[in-house]
Amino acid sequence: MKRVTLSFDNGPDPIVTPAVLDILAEHGVLTTFFVVGEKLRASPAAAAAVERAAEAGHWIGNHTDTHAIPLGLIEPPDAARAEIIRCQFSLGTVAHPDKLFRPFGGGGKLGPHLLNAEARALLVRGGYTCVLWNAIPRDWDDPDGWPARAQAQCRETDWALVVLHDIPGACVGRLDEFIAWLKAEDFEIRQDFPDDCIAYRGGQPAAGEIALGNPA
Ligand SMILES: [Zn+2]
Known about the structure:
Elements: E1 3-11, H1 16-27, E2 32-35, H2 37-40, H3 44-56, E3 59-62, H4 79-91, E4 100-101, H5 117-125, E5 129-131, H6 146-156, E6 159-165, H7 172-184, E7 188-190, E8 198-201, E9 204-205
Parallel strand pairs: 1-2, 1-6, 1-7, 2-3, 4-5
Antiparallel strand pairs: 5-8, 8-9
Helix pairs in contact: 1-3, 1-7, 6-7
Zinc ion binds near residues 9, 10, 63, 67 and 104.
């Protein structure tokens, strides 16, 4: 049976995140939300949406504090550390105990632009688990057409880790339909991650590290 893991990046959004949570609850699907620190702090409603996600059993991870410059390209290089630490601090007790962290950059391309040496050293020292991906259906620039790409990507691999976005103008309008399709096609929808999408596990380099290329 093919496996699929869903993840939601770039939130929380005070309207969209609760709508995504409603759909996931209807389907009984648990996922991971990779949260941007400054969006979490932007309003009580945004923070409440993340708390609700954690209470429902979703995992909460760190997706940097401002999601501005990819951490392999940021200047000065040491700013990468603050991007990770500030978000983790803002997550507080809702953070998954494994300190899940997902970098970003370049429309989802994997490579050395995602993390610089300072960021990698912090992930190691801090015991973070760095979660990459292998399916990017580009919901953010094709909110109506993304399910067809997501379906193709899920069929192509034994275990797809799909990146979607709980932000306005992205996946939410067709999420219900996509999950219904996964169920109809007998995919096993899991919350954990395929090994080859983990670059660091508890601070130790792991199989996915190769996708990050050589340290910048
Ligand atoms: Zn992102």
